[in-house]
Write a structure and sequence with these properties.
By secondary structure, this protein is of the alpha+beta class. Helices cover 29% and strands 41% of the residues.
């Protein structure tokens, strides 16, 4: 004969041992960790440009870049030559020109004196922005703007 009391069934469920509870907690932990890495951790978006080093009264790096990338220069700017970070003291924005349908702008970055030759071509890396991997994936999946 079985006991059909609802209280007995609740008591029986509370006493039941779950075999895979540890695996469930472990999976849930790694799912939350994956979401954190995907949407909360940011990675730098780095642009590489060729510049010309000139040093007379003040030392500057002259470079030409697309106007879309110039918008990132309003905030604090990090410029790297090889792995060394260079402090930018001032930024002078030049005129905008359209070359082969691409608007470009001349920039002059004033930097401290370096041990480079005058008129030496230097490859610099600039941290343009920091974005999460999930945001970039969603932008790619969403697609671009339709041309009208």
């Amino acid at each position: 004969m079985t006991n059909r009391s609802i209280y007995h069934n609740v008591y029986a469920l509370l006493q039941k041992k779950y075999k895979h509870l540890g695996l469930l907690i472990f999976s849930l932990f790694f799912f939350v960790l994956f979401l954190k890495l995907l949407f909360l951790e940011t990675v730098p978006l780095v642009g590489t440009y060729q510049s010309l080093y000139q040093c007379s009264k003040s030392c500057i790096l002259e470079l030409v870049m697309p106007v879309n990338d110039v918008q990132y220069f309003q905030k604090d700017l990090k410029v790297y030559v090889q792995t060394k970070e260079i402090v930018v003291q001032a930024i002078d924005f030049g005129t905008v020109e359209v070359i082969q349908g691409v608007p470009i702008q001349m920039l002059e970055l004033e930097i401290p004196k370096q041990d480079w030759y005058n008129k030496q071509q230097i490859e610099i890396k600039i941290v343009l922005s920091r974005e999460s991997i999930g945001k970039k994936i969603l932008e790619v999946l969403r697609g671009g703007e339709a041309d009208a």
